[in-house]
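Kindly inspect both lines:
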Amino acid sequence: MANLRDIRNRISSVNNTQQITKAMKMVAAAKLRKAQDRMNQTRPYASKIEEVAGRLAGSSSVSNPLLRTPEETKNLLFIIVGSDRGLCGGFNNNLFKEVENQFNNTFESYLDNDAISVVTIGKKATAHFKKRKYNVIDSFPGFFDNIDYDATSEIMEKATAQFTAGEFDEVYIAFNEFKSVIAQNRRVQKVLPLDPEKIAKSKSGDASEQAIDYLYEPNSEAILDRLLPLHLNMQLWRAVLESNASEQGARMTAMDSATENAKELERDLRLEYNQARQSAITTEISEIVSGAQALSEN
């Protein structure tokens, strides 16, 4: 049985760890509220842009390079949104496993031909995919230290230019979509080429509104050329905000679980300490009694 000093030291260490996990939970909760506010403010704007872009793309007869469907799909680009920090449970690993499962199943032929390129956002995504020798053409560690729309737009604009130039035939975004504090949806979403039929579906579900014939000034082609890149930028921006909110929720849940585990461990250690102390007291009493008996016999 461990001595009393070792057990006391372990109890002290567990108690200190418990205080840290409590503090991290509170910090994550505060960050989660801010992240949710930004995410909820962005969702209606992104949905409306998608709706208008879809209506224009579906009704316009003009061609746009972002709507082109390649005759043959040769090269794929994946933009993977992870996190910069750990201690958030399976937040990163679950997403990375989902992406790698799709690489090995849905996109196996492209993987075998080295036709998959990866752009990573966050230190964890960068470390994971570089370590496994994937073709990481660009990385953004430390991205979440200061979440900025302009920085996000630059990433998407570069991917859009590479698609337009024919370097990539399809572009995907992989991220954790916020569902609740304790749950996230892992999504691998194709963003290029744009599918007019898919994005033409109104989020409101109001059929009468969809049937309205709008007039566009100066013309639908000019608006479409301006709106489609903005729609793509908003898709990545929304993914970044969803991922950030999901990360804080996952960290809050993980730290709460760690705090409860620390409490349980502390209870077990205190029980062990009391048992060891009682055993030591019993041994001392037995030694005193034995010594007294030996003296009385002499």
Strands lie at 76-81, 116-121, 135-140, 170-180, 183-192. The chain has one domain: 24-253. The domain at 24-253 is CATH 3.40.1380.10 (Pyruvate Kinase; Chain: A, domain 1).
